[in-house]
Amino acid sequence: MALMSARMKDIARELGVSVVTVSKVLRNHDDISPETRARVLQRMKELNYRPNLAARALVTGRTHMVGLVVPDLLHAFFAQVAKGLSKVLRAQGYGLVISSSEEDPELEQQEIEQMLARRLDVVIVASAQWTVESFRRIEDQKTPYVLIDRRFLGLTANFVGTDDVLAGSMATEHLIENGCRLIAHIGGQNTSPPVDRLEGFRIALARNGLVVPSAYIVCKTHGDDAGDSTGYLAMKELLRLKPLPDGVFCYNDPTAMGAMKAIIEAGYRIPEDIAIVGSGNVHYANFLRVPLTSIDQNSELIGEHAANLALNLVKCKTSTHSSTLLVEPRLVFRQSSDKRNVLQISG
Amino acid sequence: MALMSARMKDIARELGVSVVTVSKVLRNHDDISPETRARVLQRMKELNYRPNLAARALVTGRTHMVGLVVPDLLHAFFAQVAKGLSKVLRAQGYGLVISSSEEDPELEQQEIEQMLARRLDVVIVASAQWTVESFRRIEDQKTPYVLIDRRFLGLTANFVGTDDVLAGSMATEHLIENGCRLIAHIGGQNTSPPVDRLEGFRIALARNGLVVPSAYIVCKTHGDDAGDSTGYLAMKELLRLKPLPDGVFCYNDPTAMGAMKAIIEAGYRIPEDIAIVGSGNVHYANFLRVPLTSIDQNSELIGEHAANLALNLVKCKTSTHSSTLLVEPRLVFRQSSDKRNVLQISG
DNA sequence: TTGAAAGCGCTACCAT
DNA sequence: ATGGTAGCGCTTTCAA
């Protein structure tokens, strides 16, 4: 038994062939005689040979690894995206390097630098940045990248995410259809999903001739990380208003979870007193205090699309044209917004 | 502007020094004059130089990357473990390659093979294997590995996980203390956590002189993946029994979520009719139908310990002695098992 | 069909 | 303090 794992050199020497021949067999070149091929394959199996992909990467310039940077691995949305990514990448023999930025732009920058230094073939980022500057550095390195979930205006980049304006209007229209007339919004700041969903919210209200005083719109920072406590605090603010809102569109599910907690603690009922809609449709939405109506963003599909787009970029680096892929949101109706019984009672 | 990213060679040529000198500056060797060092650093900054870690890995034999294979990225327990891992690894400049086996032993094997081929410095696995065979292959490669969450009897390996027997008895004792007398169990199969927790369950019952007919113990496969539907189905079985159990220890939180759904659908109350305890203490446990009492396994700490152990293995490969690290479980008391005041009005 | 030579970008070792 | 030489394990190119 050798101390080191076997190398091509070893197999070549033992079989009296050259390293090149072994290499060709490994990569299924067809200019090798069947007998030679058989002997090499045989010996590879015996030795349990594994090509050193790090060495291959050095000469080919391709590591066959993709990087993913997300703000928070614990957030079910990103876990789902990662799952979709992982599925596609595995099928193509690509590895996935994952890193969490903890919503910290500086940390994110560092992690991206690491990935560039590792020469990952392509990097996928749900960015916590405020500016566009850090993407310029990726571009300098000539490493292709794909943004997901959060877009940057003024940056021509490949993007895969949700049609957030539509998500926002869809959620709001749903509340209106279910009898809500004074609809509050709990949002976020600084990233495109909360901003666009708020716009969708406004569009839906306007389309239905509804007016909402600005006090009913609460946008805090840190909507993703610790979204539940943000939602909790925001909802407590809303509960001080008179009259109370009869529906709340929360810009994501963690926020909605916090809001529900605040409502129940205050002794109100969901959906009878206040209806709730979230977004993201986390996989446990149906198991919450009150099963949560949510906008399904098809997060796993976002991951799959991002993976496919990323792999395309690797295959044809020439592509100067960058694509934007919006996955269509879809509302999943659950108890938290179901006022049908309430409407019957009240006439 | 160069087409390729800068290499040491470029910097060396431009500055009239040797590649070795540049390399030494990069790695903070102290046998370089301050002026030379300054010039090199300056130029590195200007060119935005990033050392090619793939090349470094080839010569040093260290990729500075750690692999993690889990059965399911969506399971909050593993996401939390990954978070703990990630934190420690980042601080040490290590990268994290993550892969999901989807509870499929064959897929897991393939992913591990990939990681070995990539020459990751160490591999951390929450294994879905039935046998010990695949770990032998890792050992052949001389790649150190750490098992987490799931142990294998008869395998001398490094392990970090929960004291599952204690977790099981702790949960069960808790139900007993809260007045339960006919306690059911929903478990899993084939992996050590459900098996050990069931043992803890039995120990606690025996210690308290309680007897539970075998029909009250339901162990299905697939306790992790789609744990909620498993729990749902198992609970429906239990609900057909007479008399009904007055408490259920579910071997993990997803299972408990499914069980709660079945109980509520059947028109029973939690905890008044049936108390529930889970394990894992997922981060949204407090936001479920009924806030869920759960055994906190300190999953993030498990990740941190696993990372530290893994890095130690990398640093001193000589260590023939393998360690087992059990993180102590801790019960988090919430409403789902709170029978102290069954008349209490929620709100 | 086969293989010798060159080199990917970097580090280790030892001489200067 | 500095650098020449010799690789790491593999692929590429081109000649035989």
Quick take:
Two copies of one chain form a homodimer. Chain A is an alpha/beta fold.
What labels would you give this structure?
347 residues; alpha/beta; six-stranded mixed sheet; Rossmann fold; six-stranded parallel sheet; 13 helices; DNA-binding; 44% helix; 12 strands; 434 Repressor (Amino-terminal Domain); homodimer
Structural class of chain A: alpha/beta
- What is the CATH topology classification name of the largest domain in chain A? Rossmann fold
Cα shape of chain A: elongated
Q: What's the oligomerization state? A: homodimer
What is the CATH level 1 assignment of the largest domain in chain A? Alpha Beta
> Going by CATH, what is the homologous superfamily of the largest domain in chain A?
Response regulator
Helix and strand element order of chain A:
HHHHEHEHEHEEHEHEHEHEEHEEH
Distance between the termini of chain A: 84 Å
Q: In this structure, how is the largest beta sheet of chain A organized?
A: 6 strands, parallel
Mean pLDDT figure of chain A: 93
Measured as a percent range, the helix fraction of chain A is: 40-55%
Radius of gyration of chain A: 26 Å
Estimate what percentage of residues of chain A fall within beta strands: 15-25%
CATH architecture name of the largest domain in chain A = 3-Layer(aba) Sandwich
Walk across the major sheet of chain A and give the strand order. 2-1-3-4-5-11
Query: Which spans of chain A have pLDDT < 50 for at least 5 consecutive residues?
Result: none
Largest interface: A-B, 56 and 55 residues
Separate helix tally of chain A: 13
